[in-house]
Write a structure and sequence with these properties.
single chain; 290 residues; Serine Threonine Protein Phosphatase 5, Tetratricopeptide repeat; 0% strand
């Protein structure tokens, strides 16, 4: 039995030397540590060899993590590139991949991952994949609430985005509740001098407009317009969007046609000045992202 154990030890020692010899080295630091580990094994200094091998592992793990971070960032950049080409599903897929990679690296990268989940959700939303977008927004929301607390502006942004998925699926009560929660957070955390407030007001008004509750929508659009003009300037495209939707409210009664026409003309002038000749059909929703 004793001779069998000795034989096994000899075989293991032989295999150990082969494994160390085949250990890949992609840096000068790794090559030096490998040489030292081989020498320690050959001289029987196994504790020192273990320490050196642990150092090699640490160096490679750090390099691997950096490689994953770079790959995730490349995916995110590809996501933005796809957006510029109006390839929303492709963009969302890249952002989701980037988020998954960061989530696998641990807690310190979760906030950036949640940001990418928001962008992935937006891409799927714009591509008409509302249930997929909803799932991604919910994941982002859970991360932000856990890491930052339920009253953080990033939570409000994600609530706003999540509400939009319910809105586009006709689930107005759920959307309304989420928009109202987002608005309450923004009022407390950002105040009325922040454009995010105007975005949420606009989206909240859109819920009422879609349900033909024009009396509810009108003051919200007016408040959003005033806030957007004050925070973004009177010639910003978001101002044009709100003007356009506000005009749609006035179109509901004959006595409002003159006011509607004035608003439409002003919206068109802003859009043509900022973007050239474009379609400015009513937009019930404005997006939010970090």
């Amino acid at each position: 039995m004793q001779s069998y154990v000795k034989l096994q030890i000899a075989e293991d020692y032989k295999r150990l030397k082969i494994q160390v010899s085949h250990l890949p080295t992609d840096s000068g630091q790794n090559a030096e540590l490998k040489t030292q580990a081989k020498q320690a094994i050959e001289s029987g200094e196994f504790d020192q060899a273990k320490q050196l091998l642990d150092e090699i592992r640490a160096v490679n793990m750090q390099a691997a993590q950096q490689n994953i971070l770079c790959a995730a960032e490349a995916d995110a950049i590809n996501g933005t590139l796809a957006r510029t080409r109006v390839r929303y599903i492709e963009s969302a897929t890249y952002y989701e991949k980037a988020a998954q990679a960061l989530l696998a690296l641990g807690q310190e990268h979760k906030l950036k991952a949640a940001e990418y989940l928001n962008w992935a959700g937006r891409g799927f939303h714009e591509g008409g994949k509302y249930s997929k977008a909803q799932h991604l927004y919910e994941r982002a929301l859970a991360i932000f609430e856990s890491a930052l607390g339920e009253a953080h502006p990033h939570v409000a942004t994600t609530l706003n985005n999540l509400a939009s998925t319910y809105q586009f699926q006709g689930e107005y009560e759920q959307a309304l509740s989420l928009y109202e929660r987002a608005l309450a957070i923004q009022e407390n955390a950002l105040g009325e001098e922040h454009p995010a407030m105007a975005t949420t007001l606009h989206n909240l008004a859109g819920i009422y407009q879609e349900q033909k509750e024009y009396a509810q929508a009108l003051p919200l659009y007016k408040r959003a317009l005033t806030m957007s003009e004050r925070t973004l300037g009177q010639k910003h495209p978001d101002v044009a969007t709100t003007l356009n939707n506000l005009a749609g409210i006035f179109c509901q009664t004959p006595e409002g046609y003159t006011q509607a026409l004035s608003l439409y003309k002003r919206a068109l002038a802003i859009q043509e000045s900022a973007l050239g000749s474009v379609d400015i059909s009513p937009s019930p929703y404005q997006y939010s992202c970090q």
